[in-house]
Design goal:
The two termini are 12 Å apart. The chain has 341 residues and is of the alpha/beta class. The longest helix has 21 residues. Strands 8-7-6-9-10-11-12 form a seven-stranded parallel sheet, with helices on both faces. It has a five-stranded parallel sheet with strand order 2-1-3-4-5. The relative contact order is 0.14. It has two domains: 129 residues, NAD(P)-binding Rossmann-like Domain (Rossmann fold, 3-Layer(aba) Sandwich); 191 residues, Rossmann fold, CATH 3.40.50. It has twelve helices and twelve strands. β9, α9 and β10 form a beta-alpha-beta unit. It binds 1,4-dihydronicotinamide adenine dinucleotide (NAI). GO terms for molecular function: D-lactate dehydrogenase (NAD+) activity. It comes from Flavobacterium flavipallidum. Keywords: NAD, Oxidoreductase. Pfam families: 2-Hacid_dh (PF00389), 2-Hacid_dh_C (PF02826). Belongs to the D-isomer specific 2-hydroxyacid dehydrogenase family.
Amino acid sequence: MKNTHITIKPKVAFFSTQTYDKTFFEKYNLDFEYQLDFFESQLNEQTVTLINNVDVVCVFVNDIVNAEVIKQLAEQNVKIIALRCAGFNNVDLEEAKKHHIKVCRVPAYSPEAVAEHAMAMILTLNRKTHKAYNRVREQNFSLNGLLGFDLHGKTVGVIGTGNIGKAFAKIVNGFGCKVLAFDLVPDEELEKIGVTYVSLETIFKESDVISLHCPLNEKTKYLINKETISMMKNNVMLINTSRGALIDTSDVIHALKKGKIGYLGIDVYEQEEKLFFKDHSEDIIEDDKIQRLMSFPNVLVTAHQAFFTNEALTQIALVTFNNIESLLTQNDIDNKAALLA
Ligand code: NAI
């Protein structure tokens, strides 16, 4: 479909808006002067009715952009779905194509932000700095229970070496680890610095630490399950900063109970859309799996904060607005990785 050129301030509706989204998008809108509507609610079949005369909807990781929502967006004449994130497993791209709605994303805003958070999780779980912080504030200077291990010389398995996995592999390489990697497409630059591409099975069998950086799709859903866990070393450390459903949470809980998994760091959780990005401190949480996970002393949960740096939020706002501008004016985006449909 040929896009009509829009010269009067297009309207962009943001869903799942947090105060920091508003701050960064308003700041960088000075150059674009779009009309911005901010909704705190997640986009779904009910909340889609909130929009009024909107050209673009801007969504985040837990917004539900399924066929029904897209149909309603098409009825409201929405032209663009702009994801302000990299992952797009929550959008029905085929349905968007059917309705001639363009879909764009921010393919790489700060891979280092996520890679550095994965490393922070490893160091925290290993050296228990979160416990040490609380202890010394209570004048408890004992070291009992804080014993860690040298990361230097350990084998780290990286699954998915795209933008984030590559940045992460470089970091662990710098720590003196032996780095094993699995990806559908090996990265030559990583091979040159000594990263070895191996089979998934070898990663599971030989790694002391496994970090997930592949996207969520039909092939990777529940990649970590009771069978793959059984191949792993006893006391393995597992880190997931990618998407919750890469892990079968029940199987991981079982392996934590048995001591097979020695450490778990997750920034993402399969049922996170009901919990993350909100303050539930006064609520009764009905999700027993997350409650069980949080009860283990060797589990660290962060609430999808790996991307959350000043540099990343700046890039997200700039790239999102540039994507929208390109689509509204040329019906295309120069950066092909940003255009999904
Ligand atoms: P990317 O697209 O640059 O890299 C993904 C890599 O995974 C590619 O090299 C691809 O070939 C590989 N891959 C695809 N299927 C695979 C499979 N079956 N097994 C192994 N590797 C496979 O994506 P990027 O930017 O590195 O992001 C990775 C993921 O991180 C995203 O899909 C997203 O889910 C997650 N993410 C999480 C954030 C957070 O705040 N926690 C922030 C940004 C992204």
